[in-house]
Each structure stands twice: as structure tokens, then as C-alpha cells.
Amino acid sequence: MTVQIIKGNCLEILPTLEPESFDLVLTYCPYGSTSLPWDRWQTGWPAAARRVLTRTGSMWVFGTTKMFFERAGEFSGWTMAQDVVWEKHNGSGFQADRFRRVHEIACQFYRDDAPWADIYKCPQFTNDATARQVRRKRRPAHTGHIDTGHYVSVDGGPRLARSVMYVRSEHGRAEHPTQKPLGIVEPLLLYSCPPGGLVLDCFAGSGTTGILAERHGRNSVLIEADDEFFEMANRRIGSDGFKFPVPA
Ligand SMILES: C[S@@+](CC[C@H](N)C(=O)[O-])C[C@H]1O[C@@H](n2cnc3c(N)ncnc32)[C@H](O)[C@@H]1O
Description:
The chain is α/β, with parallel strands linked by helices. Helix content is 19%, strand content 29%. The protein has a single domain, classed as 3-Layer(aba) Sandwich (Rossmann fold). The chain is built from 6 helices and 13 strands. It starts with a strand and ends in a 5-residue tail after the last strand.
């Protein structure tokens, strides 16, 4: 598996990448939720990412409902498929006059020139159903037959993974100020990128997407503008990375 880490501004790098070459875009874009100097919305990035996505691919973006509303125009050319909620053990950016915020969302988009039926997806399952459940039998059409009982015991078995996922945040142990836990990115990657496929994270930070891609047999390209975070991603992934422009 290859992990290619490119240092530079994704708005400059994305137009140089081959069109329709990625199976998945999986990223946590900056949108001004903190006072960190790099945390600024990068105008035009969703369109630049769309250009490099295959017609059967999709894109997951972490953010907030407020951000997606405010930046809705930037997502023209995309159809929204679904969202998942990441429930954290703690929260961030508390405001005393609102609810204590302990979640983030990630939205999945696909190209608006493709039908959902064509988009790659591999539904995820959990074994969180109780091992055996007792279910009430459906009342049969009246036949005169008297049933022996109204309840049946069945195996719980695997169930579709829930759209609300509890994963401990990296608070207190992260290297990057907004580092995502592997556990919340992993199911999105497995759901949306075929084995051996190619995933892009255009705001790579500490390289979380690349770590998981390598672990699960997917190739990846990561783009990070900041020197320190570029080194951090390389260190975490154990790669040397590339400076932009990428050497031929
Ligand atoms: C929200 S963080 C990503 C954190 C990452 N998901 C992780 O788990 O570590 C966004 C990253 O985008 C980078 N960034 C901001 N603007 C950029 C740009 N135009 N091109 C590439 N990277 C950029 C920032 O330096 C920051 O590391």
C-alpha cells in the first residue's frame, strides 16, 4: 500500500492531480471554529476535490451543521447522502448559554451526475444486539389454528452500524490540536473505499486518514500545508513525504 504525503496548499495541488482518480475523499476541513491561524475556510476546495473523484466515489467531510448551512453554496455539484454523529466523551468550545456540545457530524456527499445506486458502499455491522432476543410473533391471519405461544427467541446477530457513534476524543493525548480519533474515521473509510482503492485527505493534519488507509489495505494521498503538521503526519505514518511540486 502507498501513502503519499504532499506538503503544500491543497487549492494549488488538487488541480494538478489526475481527474477522476480517487475512490474516496475523507477529510476534516478547516472552517473557522477555532482561533488557530490555519483554521480558515478554503474557498473552492469542494469543487477541486470533486474533479479528482471517480463517478462511483464519495466524500466524507467532518464539520458542524452550522458550517454545512453556511457553506452550502460551496457544495454545489454534490448530492448529500447521509450524515453520522460522532459523540465524544467531552466537548469543545463550550458557550455558557447553549447546550454543552459533545458531538460533531460527518456528511457523505457524492457527485450530482451519478445515481446513489452506482456509488460504492460496504455497509458496516456491529454485534451490539443482545445475544438472544425475545420477540413477539406477528399475529397470523386468522385460520382457526391455535398457536403454541406468542413469543419467539432469536439470535441477536450482527446489526447495521448505528449512525451515532461514541468514540473517546483525543483530548489530552493528541499531537495535532484537532486530531480525529482513529475509531471515528475507520468505519467511514471501510464503508466508502474498496479494498486496494485510493483515498484523498486534502487537509491531512496529523495523517489520521493515511494511518487507517495503510492499516486497511487502501492507498492514500494526503495534503498538508503546515510544516509542523506535515512532519507530524510523516512521523505517525513512518513516511518521508513529498514537498510540492511532487518530483516527477
Ligand atoms: C482540522 S485539521 C485536520 C486534522 C486531521 N483530521 C487529524 O486527524 O489530524 C485541518 C488541517 O488542514 C490544514 N490546512 C489548512 N489549510 C490548508 C490548505 N489550504 N491546504 C492544505 N492543508 C491545509 C491545517 O494545517 C490543518 O492541519
